[in-house]
Amino acid sequence: MKTILITGGAGFIGSHVVREFVVKYPEYKILNLDALTYAGNLENLKDIESAKNYEFIKADITDQKHIQHIFETYQPDGVIHLAAESHVDRSITNPLEFVMTNVIGTVNLLNSAKSIWEGNYEGKRFHHVSTDEVYGTLGEEGFFLESTAYDPHSPYSASKASSDHFVRAYADTYGLPVVITNCSNNYGPNHFPEKLIPLCIHNILNNHPLPIYGDGKYTRDWLFVIDHAKAIDLVFHEGLNLEAYNVGGFNEWKNIDLVKELCRQMDQKLGREQGTSEQLITFVKDRPGHDLRYAIDATKINQELGWKPSVTFEEGLSITIDWFLSNKAWLENVTSGDYQHYYEKQYTAE
Ligand code: NAD
Ligand code: DAU
To answer: Which of 6, 253, 255, 269 holds its CA 20 to 30 A away from the CA of 211?
Structure first.
C-alpha cells in the first residue's frame, strides 16, 4: 500500500485533491496534513472523513521537529504539497507569514522527504503545487510558458517563486525526485470568500457592494478546481522528474466582465430582475503592485499527458453558484468571526 502525504488538504484546492485521491485510489493511504489556519476547514471533507484509506494529521509545516516526526512515523512514498498562505492581499499586509509557511515550510518538507528517502528514491515523488503568479505579469498579448523567466511582484508570488526554486535546488543538489505544477486562478465549491468569485457570490446574496479593484480591466485565466485536482493526479503519476507543467483553463476574463457574468447568472438563479446585482458593482482602490494579466499556455500538459479542462467556464460557474446556494451555512460559518475583521480592514481602511 502506498502512503501519500497531502499538505493543505483542508483548504480549497487541497480538499478536492484529497477527495480525488481517497475515492480513486482505495489502495493508497491518504494522509491529510494541515494546520487548520483560517483557510483550512475539515467541513470541506465531511463526505470522505470516515473512509478507511484516509487520515487527518493536524500539524504546522513551519514546525520542523513535528514534520520530521510525522515523516519518520508514516514513511510516505509521495508528497503533494499544497499547504500555503494563498491570498495576495494578505501577503501585502503580512509578508513574513508568507515567508514562514511558503518558504520555510516548504524547505522543512523537502528536508524531511530527503532524510527518509535518501539512498532510495525509487517510487518516490515530491509534487510541489505552485502558481502562474511566479511568472509575473503579461501585457495585452502572449502566454506564460514553462520556460518563461520568473518575475514575481507580490510578497505572495515572491514566496511561491522562492519555494519553487528550493524544490528545484533539492532536485539538482540531492537528486530528490520532484515535479512542479504552475496553475492559473481556480474557482469552485469550498472557495474561501476572500477571493474574487466567492466574495462576490457572498456579497450578491447579501446585497453588499461588489468591490472591483482599480478599473476592473485586470485579467485572469480561470480554471474549475476539480480540473486542477485531476491535473495534479495526472502529473503526480505520469509527469517527468524535474519537469514543470503549466495548468490553465484557456479562459481569460477581465475582472469586470467576470463579475458582470456572475451577476447575470446569480440574478437568474435568485429570480431577481436582470441588472439588479450589477448595480452593486463598486470600484475601489487598487491592489498595490497589481499584475495586469495572467494567461497560461497549457499545451505541454495537454500534449504530453492528455489533460484538458472538462467543463466550460459557464458550466463551472453555474455548478459553483449552485454549490454556494445550497451551502449557505458553510458560507456563513467561514464569514463570521475573524473574517469580519479582515473584511473591514481590507475594504474600509484608506
Ligand atoms: P487555501 O488558502 O484555500 O488553503 C491553504 C491550506 O493550507 C489551508 O487548509 C491551511 O490551513 C493550510 N496551511 C496554511 N498554512 C499552513 C501551515 N503552516 N502548515 C500546514 N498547513 C497550512 O489555498 P488554495 O487556494 O487551496 O491553494 C492551495 C495551493 O495551491 C497553494 O500552494 C497555492 O499557492 C496554490 N495555488 C492556488 C491557486 C488558486 O487559485 N487558489 C492557483 C494556483 C496555485
Ligand atoms: O493565479 C493564481 C493565483 O490566483 C493563486 O496563486 C492565488 O493563490 C489565488 O489567490 C489567485 O490570486 P489572485 O490575486 O489572482 O486572486 P483574487 O481572487 O484575490 O483576485 C482575482 C482578481 O480580482 C485580481 O485581479 C484582483 C481582483 N479583485 C480581487 C478581490 C479580492 C478585485 O477586483 N476585488 C476584490 O475584492
So the answer is: 269
